[in-house]
Amino acid sequence: MTVGELVHHTALRLSAPELLSEDPGQEARELVAHALGVLPAELPDQASNCVDSRQHGEFMRLLSRRLDAEPTGYIVGAVELLGLRFTVDRRGFIPRLDLPVLINAGLERVPREVSGFALDLACGIGAAGICVGHARPGLRVDLTDVSSEAIELARENADRLIPGRAQCYAGDLFQPLPRGRRYAIVTANPPWVPDGTPLPEEVINHEPPVSFFGGPDGLDVVRRLIRELPEWLAPGGVYAQECDPSQVDKVIGLLTGAGLRDPRAHPDKDGVRRVVSAQRHG
Ligand SMILES: C[S@@+](CC[C@H](N)C(=O)[O-])C[C@H]1O[C@@H](n2cnc3c(N)ncnc32)[C@H](O)[C@@H]1O
Q: Is the full-model pTM beyond 0.85?
């Protein structure tokens, strides 16, 4: 079998609904590339090469882990978003492929030549903040998360992808950040799942438990965050946050209640609203 055929068959296999793949094609490329010891971007050059028996054996080991509900990000140790390749392991939540909806919702309200500071709150491995920093070279980036393990990983990613431009802090929400700092943009994908919600095996058995649950209606962390948010935003500063589609109107209400203006709901590629943004008065 050729490399191209293996990618094709794997994508079909990963399309099975019970595997809950966000993008079977991308997962297939990740798994095949990892088995071959190359990056997914290098696969097109190898598409017509034959897969040898050692590579095939390695691939089958990786595939069986995925079919056992282990997330591909942890199997290959990486996830790619907006052209940046992030290291990921069990210390941190795996950024989902729709995180760019959140990143772009913030970026579309921030001029290209902006300077000052960006903040990624509850940053996990730091993907949103690092993408913002990459797209806005005039910004320095603060990354913060309650998990010190996730913050180690965020630091590793930031040092590699936006060297010298990021500071990492471990602690509850805004608590570890330098007092008096004001942000041009704050991104956040905090825990927002209502307590007791059943989560798929591949999520609950593998990812850090602190990532998910946010109290009875899921919004305990979000409410605390938005209460403090206005004092951390620079005049005109932008906030963008992910939440469940069912929470969008509630989060917009919290943001306007906190005095932010022009709240917007942003759809994902399927037209589902799952990101909210708003801005501090200038
Ligand atoms: C759903 S994960 C999202 C991670 C990252 N923003 C992303 O989208 O990949 C939620 C993150 O919130 C962090 N977290 C939970 N409670 C927190 C708190 N009180 N303060 C700061 N971070 C918190 C978790 O450690 C986890 O990394």
A: yes
Q: Which CATH class is domain 3-76?
A: mainly alpha
Domain boundaries defined on the chain: 3-76, 92-279
d(CA 190, CA 222): 7
CA of 120 to the centre of ligand 1 (A): 10
Q: Residue 275 is encoded by which pair of tokens? A: 């990101």
d(Cα 176, Cα 76) in Å, to the nearest integer?
A: 32
Ligand 1 pocket: which of 22, 125, 143, 146 to mutate (most atoms within 8 A of CB): 146
CATH topology of domain 92-279: Rossmann fold (3.40.50)
pLDDT in 10s for each residue of the chain, 282 residues: 999 999 999 999 999 998 999 999 999 999 999 999 999 999 999 999 999 999 999 999 999 999 999 999 999 999 999 999 999 999 999 999 999 999 999 999 999 999 999 999 999 999 999 999 999 999 999 999 999 999 999 999 999 999 999 999 999 999 999 999 999 999 999 999 999 999 988 888 888 889 999 999 999 999 999 999 999 999 999 999 999 999 999 999 999 999 999 999 999 999 999 999 999 998
